[in-house]
Recover the amino acids of this structure.
């Protein structure tokens, strides 16, 4: 019983991270019809930014809570700038190119970010220890042990999903974003500044990535230059399974993928090395069964 | 049909001869030069000549001559290949690189059939190459099976594994299809890493090739010249590349090529005209995977050692970028693209660990500057006069 609680918590944590990443994918796709594969590496960039901020505030002798805030602020700021920059300088010029070119281009942008971190971050090839900024204790419910920091991070992650949802559906900027997603030309004739909405949208999606990256660092106490690649593949998978362009779909997809992984680890511990294999097999089967995702993409293909 | 073709005036053949000679000379120079400064100069020179040739119609002239005299082209390529082999006869590393370029090129011809002709997305090419490689390794450990059959089994197992993906690939489109192959590629790698039977992360050793008593691991002595044993592999990979090239050419020129174009460009129109979309997609997917599997087996046999790190998602990405850089759907473009993508990072030592970074930047720049690739695919010219 105690183990199940552990798995549940771990699965929730991973699902929250995957959901946050998948949300970025789905936002970008909804607005620009592109898959921005560098998203995972923007996340890594954010996490490293957060790490540097912790180092800086720590050496200045600031308190732990302010280090915590600095980590998130730096991660979100850095990833927002990176996301907006990539959209403005690389994605916009290519937006009329074939989707395959765009996919390859963003994959290469991701490679550039990944390699840049590996080469130019001090000792970047090796995993970096992420300092523990949250209370390390925990408490027992029944026979299960719950880490306090994990609970805080899960609550923070879910809250941030809520905030993004609120921005998209309840603010003026969100309205502009949805208008652009619906129909670029009409949105422009209605006076929406297309050239500003797009980078801001990418910044918003990337902020969630930076946020998720910092959560990842705090939870696993370790970050490395390559962590974004698998997270991007999983986030993309989650967004696809949920149905591209659908926020709820992305979040469901994220938790579903984490659930599959956790299920494999919990049910057959000897096969835990194969957890991603099983998860991907099931996802491929799922996508074969529902070729446009669980919650079908809006305005699906017309003949 | 060629007799009826409207171009009665004779086309000069010298641009074609010059082009093949230039390609052979460029290849040899790039492989042989070690000095980084001279290499840089040579690269600049080659780029300048290519640019000038494209600017002043040389490329078009060579292409016309090639399409008018296909047998002259084949003969010239054979002569050029023999000349290159003779010059590089004792340069082990150079020959290994040439063979590697040819392996990549052949896999990418398979990808061209899948992505360029049929419009299927495949981000798992390295996984199919790996399937072939691991098949060769496992069969090599068991022993007994003659090597030609080992290479073919590599292809067949890749087809078999690929057939598991046929249903998802047929049912999904666009980004959803990209996901199925991408997930498969990543999954394949995770599986290899975890599987003890297949050597885990340490990989497997494989004995070299022996074709009907022709031992690939010993040097050749012909007319008093000693040829490194890698010459064997260059010949084998060269022959396979040529066969794949001919296969892709026949596909492209036949009605199948036209049907694949229709399937790629407009599925609705294709089914209105009674084409079995699924059938042609399966054909293209299977052919491409077969080529990847065979070349994987050759690669494993040549290097004598394979590990999961040889077949990562990054390698699939390299193969897709070769296809796109060459000009998607143009099988000839694959050759220069494979040469640049595979050879340059090996040769430019000063970029060593920065090579992936610079390579990624290069691809981004080319995608922005030349979105159609080096040699864009020509729109199919229907010779109405010839058929009437």
């Amino acid at each position: 019983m105690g183990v199940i609680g552990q798995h549940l918590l771990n699965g929730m944590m991973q699902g929250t991270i995957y959901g946050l990443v998948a949300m970025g994918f789905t936002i970008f796709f909804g607005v620009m019809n592109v898959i921005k594969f560098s998203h995972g590496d923007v996340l890594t960039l954010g996490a490293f930014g957060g790490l540097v901020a912790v180092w800086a505030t720590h050496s200045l002798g600031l308190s732990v809570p302010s280090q915590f805030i600095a980590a998130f602020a730096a991660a979100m700021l850095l990833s927002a700038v990176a996301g907006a920059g990539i959209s403005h300088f690389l994605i916009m010029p290519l937006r009329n190119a074939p989707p395959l070119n765009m996919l390859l281009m963003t994959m290469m942008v991701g490679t550039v970010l990944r390699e840049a971190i590996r080469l130019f971050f001090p000792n970047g090839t090796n995993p970096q220890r992420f300092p523990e900024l949250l209370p390390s204790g925990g408490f027992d419910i029944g026979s299960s042990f719950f880490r306090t920091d994990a609970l805080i991070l899960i609550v923070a992650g879910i809250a941030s999903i809520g905030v993004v949802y609120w921005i998209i559906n309840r603010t003026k900027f969100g309205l502009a974003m949805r208008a652009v997603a619906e129909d670029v030309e009409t949105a422009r004739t209605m006076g929406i500044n297309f050239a500003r909405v797009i980078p801001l949208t990418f910044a918003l999606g990337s902020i969630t990535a930076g946020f998720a990256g910092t959560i990842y660092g705090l939870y696993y106490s370790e970050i490395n230059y390559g962590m974004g690649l698998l997270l991007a593949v999983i986030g993309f998978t989650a967004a696809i399974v949920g149905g591209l362009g659908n926020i709820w779909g992305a979040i469901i997809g994220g938790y579903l993928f984490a659930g599959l992984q956790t299920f494999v680890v919990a049910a057959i511990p000897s096969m835990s090395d194969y957890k991603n294999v099983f998860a991907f097999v099931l996802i491929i089967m799922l996508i074969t069964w529902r070729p446009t995702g669980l919650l079908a993409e809006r305005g699906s293909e017309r003949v | 049909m060629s007799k009826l073709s409207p171009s009665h005036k004779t086309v000069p053949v010298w641009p074609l001869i010059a082009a093949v000679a230039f390609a052979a000379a460029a290849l040899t120079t790039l492989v042989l030069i070690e000095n980084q400064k001279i290499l840089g100069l040579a690269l600049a020179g080659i780029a300048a000549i290519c640019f000038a040739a494209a600017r002043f119609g040389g490329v078009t002239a060579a292409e016309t001559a090639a399409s008018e005299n296909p047998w002259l082209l084949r003969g010239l390529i054979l002569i050029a290949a023999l000349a290159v082999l003779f010059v590089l006869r004792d340069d082990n590393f150079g020959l290994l690189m040439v063979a590697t370029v040819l392996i990549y090129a052949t896999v990418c011809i398979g990808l061209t059939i899948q992505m360029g002709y049929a419009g299927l997305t495949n981000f798992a090419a390295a996984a199919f190459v790996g399937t072939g490689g691991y098949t060769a390794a496992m069969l090599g450990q068991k022993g007994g099976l003659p090597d030609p059959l080992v290479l073919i089994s590599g292809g067949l197992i890749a087809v078999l594994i690929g057939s598991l993906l046929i249903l998802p690939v047929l049912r999904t489109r666009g980004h959803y299809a990209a996901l199925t192959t991408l997930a498969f590629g990543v999954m394949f790698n995770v599986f290899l890493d975890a599987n003890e039977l297949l050597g885990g992360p340490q990989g497997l050793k494989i004995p070299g090739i022996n074709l009907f008593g022709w031992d690939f691991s010993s040097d050749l002595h012909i007319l008093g010249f000693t040829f490194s044993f890698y010459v064997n592999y260059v010949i084998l990979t060269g022959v396979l590349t040529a066969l794949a090239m001919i296969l892709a050419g026949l596909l492209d020129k036949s009605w199948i090529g036209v049907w694949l174009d229709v399937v790629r460009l407009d599925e609705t129109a294709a089914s209105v005209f009674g084409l079995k979309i699924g059938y042609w997609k399966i054909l293209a997917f299977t052919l491409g995977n077969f080529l990847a599997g065979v070349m994987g087996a050759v690669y494993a046999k040549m290097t004598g050692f394979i590990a999961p790190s040889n077949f990562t998602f990054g390698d699939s990405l390299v193969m897709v970028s070769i296809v796109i850089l060459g000009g998607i759907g143009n099988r000839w473009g694959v050759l220069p693209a494979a040469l640049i993508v595979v050879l340059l990072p090996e040769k430019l030592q000063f970029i060593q660990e920065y090579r992936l970074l610079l390579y990624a930047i290069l691809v981004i720049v080319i995608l922005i500057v030349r979105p159609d690739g080096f040699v864009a695919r020509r729109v199919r010219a229907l010779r109405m006069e010839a058929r009437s």
User: Anything to note?
Assistant: Chain A touches chain B at residues 29, 35, 90, 93-94, 97-101, 103-105, 107-109, 111-112, 115-116, 119, 229-230, 233, 236-237, 240, 244, 273-274, 276-277, 280-281, 283-285, 287-288, 291-293, 301, 303 (CB under 8 Å). The mean pLDDT of chain A is 86.
